[in-house]
Amino acid sequence: MEPVQLAAVLAAVVLLASMLSVELGITVALLELTLGVVVGNVFDLSSQEWLDFIATFASIVLTFLAGMEVDPTYMRRRLEASVAIGVSSFAGPFVVASLVAYFLLDWTVKASLIAGTALSTTSLAVVYAVLVERGLTDVGIGKLLMSATFITDLCTALALSAIFIKPNIWFPVFLLISLALILALPRIAGWFFGRYGDRVIEPEIKLVFACLLLLMVLANASNGHAVLPAFVLGLVMSRHYQEHREEQKRLRVVAFAFLTPFFFIKGGINVSLGAVFANLGLLAALLAAKMVPKIAFIFPLARKAAPRHATFTTLLMSTGLTFGTISSLYGLNAGLIDETQFSLVVTVVVLSAVVPTAIAERWFLPDADEEKRIDRRSAGAQAEEYV
């Protein structure tokens, strides 16, 4: 299929997903994933270089936007809960999935570790998309979820780097430039956005994109990945965007209208239903290896940290997509897993993005307005206590 033909097909899928999202009240990311699986298998679609690039860039932009939503003050205040939930969300599935793949499925050690790494993740993209669409980014439960998800994906990225990735001479350059951007961008943002911003040509968005693309170039050269620096860059820019909500809104519009749909659809296209149906027993074992420890480890901590929304927290922390797909693709490209193993792991990743999110939204979704009222009352009570 020619690139323009694939683009036209996917554009129609993106539009259909948006219409269904409005009609059914389901987060559009889930529909894009599901429709990606359907069209990818029914029409035998495969990804192309342009789609790979847009999807990769979209994952970095989503990660930056997610970091932008984290409240540093809240994260410091709830650091113990965030770290406890985040670390347990990583450690349980990583250990269990690796052991299941090695002893039960008879995979190699490296293939088992790839499975454990891919299934240990929590999807920053899915969590962020749900919180934005449901208006929960500014309330306590949303802030806790973003903080805990960051901790989980930090652990996953460190595990992937420590076990598999072999840094080269470019890696120190990547670290130095990442640190320089993290320190410099918040300092120049006020001046730059004041001098060049608030124009239809959107120089402020172009500055952010240029920084993220630079991180991607250096990460690729150094055998690293730009997701974590992008998240931290968004985190240090969060205060700026709290003061400039219109800039934040415009950046969201660009991301959710064009970039992120291709990321989610490509995630669905990666799933081979033929390989999945031929190995349903293996799929069930891997899915249980991810979901059972996620629920078992997270729920008791979530009941303590967010008792009214423990189930919602547990379900969203059980999702996977971005780092799960990245880890799986790394294993496939490095020859550590074969195409069948890749399809199985990616299918589990996609299922873990769709099923827990659908359940969480259908039966356990917090009311955003009520949460804001509760947060205001809590803030008022704390202020009175301080006085």
Share of residues in helices: over 70%
- Helical stretch tally: 19
Biggest β-sheet description: none
Identify the CATH class.
Mainly Alpha
| Shape annotation | globular
Strand content: under 5%
Rounded to an integer in angstroms, the radius of gyration calculated over CA atoms is 20 Å
What is the succession of H and E elements?
HHHHHHHHHHHHHHHHHHH
Number of domains: 1
Whole-number mean pLDDT:
88
- CATH architecture assignment name: Up-down Bundle
Strand count: 0
What is the CATH topology classification name?
Answer: Na+/H+ antiporter like fold
Quick summary of this structure?
The chain has one domain: Na+/H+ antiporter like fold, CATH 1.20.1530.20.
Q: How would you describe this structure to a colleague?
A:
With 387 residues, the protein is mainly α. The protein has one domain: Na+/H+ antiporter like fold. The chain has 19 helices and no strands. Helix 2 runs parallel beside helix 13 (245-269) and helix 5 (79-104) packs antiparallel against helix 6 (109-119). The protein is globular, with a radius of gyration of 20 Å. The mean pLDDT is 88.
List the helices and strands and how they pair.
Layout: H1 3-24, H2 28-42, H3 49-69, H4 72-77, H5 79-104, H6 109-119, H7 124-133, H8 140-163, H9 171-196, H10 203-221, H11 227-236, H12 238-243, H13 245-269, H14 273-277, H15 280-305, H16 310-317, H17 322-333, H18 339-363, H19 368-386
Helix pairs in contact: 1-2, 2-13, 2-18, 3-10, 3-11, 3-13, 5-6, 5-8, 5-15, 6-8, 6-17, 6-18, 7-8, 9-10, 9-11, 15-16, 15-18, 16-18, 17-18
